Each structure stands twice: as structure tokens, then as C-alpha cells.
């Protein structure tokens, strides 16, 4: 019978976090030894009080625990996962600069694919937002991006989208392409992004924005 014992400082983790870590530690055991172990895993979280342990001879007190908890909460808030990628796009779509600044770094760069007038490297958030505004104006605000999948690994996110639009003033000019965006994150914000278009979509993109 596998036995998992985890020692935490009292007050560092809430009940939901303790339940989450127990479940994930059990999953690790199952991944190593197989599903046969799952019904027999015994998990235990033991908590020690501040003041009853030390690091390098320095006794840990409530202030040290609170400081560690604050850093942990900040890291959790900035954790890169699918939900954060979605939130970044939602902030961008909202047009709310305060929300955008939470996810998009002021010094970010973005490489737009193709050889259209809107293509090329956009340096800085202001330039990137101006590009987005230009795209919206040329498409008479018809531009739509349907996200089909999102992958996250380390500080990199990759999302696949299906983009459609109708050129303003010329309903015969349509955009219907599949795109991949690769973004690098730092401290919870996008610092670098680039797009790539599948198949003949680059030609279609160039013609649409010509």
C-alpha cells in the first residue's frame, strides 16, 4: 500500500489547495505504478506550527509564513495555463487598457505574417494595439477569431484559431483562414508573439489586406 506524507507549515495552504495537492500526488504514484495502486493509496498532510521549525538556524515565524504565502499567491495568479491565455484574448477584445495591461507587456513584440501592408514586426504594446485597430477598421469590425485549441508548455503558449472577415466596402473580399499563434510569457504577461498561417491562407491574407 503506497503511503504519501506531506508536511506543510500551518496556515500556508487552504483546504482546497491541500485537497488538490493530495490528489495530484496520488496521480503521480498511479502514473509510476499503475491503476492497481489507486484504491490503496494512503495520503496524509501533516502541518507544523510556525516557531516549531527553522531554516539555517532561523526560526520560522508567522511573518515568514505570511511572506511565503503572498509570493505563492502571486505566482499562482500569474500561472500560465489555458485560462490565462483565454483571459489575455478576452482583455484584448474588451478594449479596456487596464485589463489589457494585465496580460500584455508594454514592451512586447508581435510578428504579423504575410507581405500585406499590415504585416511585419510590431514593437511595443501601443504599436500592436494600433495594428489591431487597423485590422478592425479594414474589416469594418467583422473580423472574428474562433479559438480551436490551446497548448501550454513552460513559458510558451500555442493557440490555433479559425479567422474570418469581410473587407469593409467590398463584401466580395472574404477572409477564411486557419492560424497558429506562438506566444512567450514572462511574469504572467505576453512579451513576444508571432503568427503563422496554414496552406494558401497567407496568399488570401495578403490579398485581403492589400
Radius of gyration: 24 Å
Coarse structural class: alpha+beta
**How many separate helices?**
6
Tally of DSSP β-strands: 10
Which descriptor suits the 3D outline? Answer: elongated
Helix percentage range: 25-40%
Low-confidence stretches: none
Percent range for β-strand residues: 35-45%
What is the average per-residue confidence, as pLDDT, rounded to a whole number?
Answer: 91
**Assembly form of the protein:** single chain
List the helices and strands and how they pair.
Layout: E1 3-9, H1 15-33, E2 42-48, E3 54-55, E4 58-59, H2 62-77, H3 82-94, H4 97-100, E5 104-112, E6 120-123, H5 125-138, E7 144-153, E8 156-166, E9 174-186, E10 189-197, H6 201-208
Parallel strand pairs: 1-2, 5-10
Antiparallel strand pairs: 3-4, 5-6, 7-8, 8-9, 9-10
Key words describing this protein structure:
210 residues, 35% helix, two-stranded parallel sheet, 6 helices, elongated, alpha+beta
Characterise this structure:
The chain is 35% helix and 35% strand. A hairpin with a 2-residue loop joins strand 3 and strand 4. The protein is elongated. The relative contact order is 0.11. The strands form 3 sheets. It has a 6-stranded mixed beta sheet. The protein has 210 residues and is α+β, with helices and mostly antiparallel strands. It has helices at residues 15-33, 62-77, 82-94, 97-100, 125-138, 201-208, and strands at 3-9, 42-48, 54-55, 58-59, 104-112, 120-123, 144-153, 156-166, 174-186, 189-197.
Amino acid at each position: 500500500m503506497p503511503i504519501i506524507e506531506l508536511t506543510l507549515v500551518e496556515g500556508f495552504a487552504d483546504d482546497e489547495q491541500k485537497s488538490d495537492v493530495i490528489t495530484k500526488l496520488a496521480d503521480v504514484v498511479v502514473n509510476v505504478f499503475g491503476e492497481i495502486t489507486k484504491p490503496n493509496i494512503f495520503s496524509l498532510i501533516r502541518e507544523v506550527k510556525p516557531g516549531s521549525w527553522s531554516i539555517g538556524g532561523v526560526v520560522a515565524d508567522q511573518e515568514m509564513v505570511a511572506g511565503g504565502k503572498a509570493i505563492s499567491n502571486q505566482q499562482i495568479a500569474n500561472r500560465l495555463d489555458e485560462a490565462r491565455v483565454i483571459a489575455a484574448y478576452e482583455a484584448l477584445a474588451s478594449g479596456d487598457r487596464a485589463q489589457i495591461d494585465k496580460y500584455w507587456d508594454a514592451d512586447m513584440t508581435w510578428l504579423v505574417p504575410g507581405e500585406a501592408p499590415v504585416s511585419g514586426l510590431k514593437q511595443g504594446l501601443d504599436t500592436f494595439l494600433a495594428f489591431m485597430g487597423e485590422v478592425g477598421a479594414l474589416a469594418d469590425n467583422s473580423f472574428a477569431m474562433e479559438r480551436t485549441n490551446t497548448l501550454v508548455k513552460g513559458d510558451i503558449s500555442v493557440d490555433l484559431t479559425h479567422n474570418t472577415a469581410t473587407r469593409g466596402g467590398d463584401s466580395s473580399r472574404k477572409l477564411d483562414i486557419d492560424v497558429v499563434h506562438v506566444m512567450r510569457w514572462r511574469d504572467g504577461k505576453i512579451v513576444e508573439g508571432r503568427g503563422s498561417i496554414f496552406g494558401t491562407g497567407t496568399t488570401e491574407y495578403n490579398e485581403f489586406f492589400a
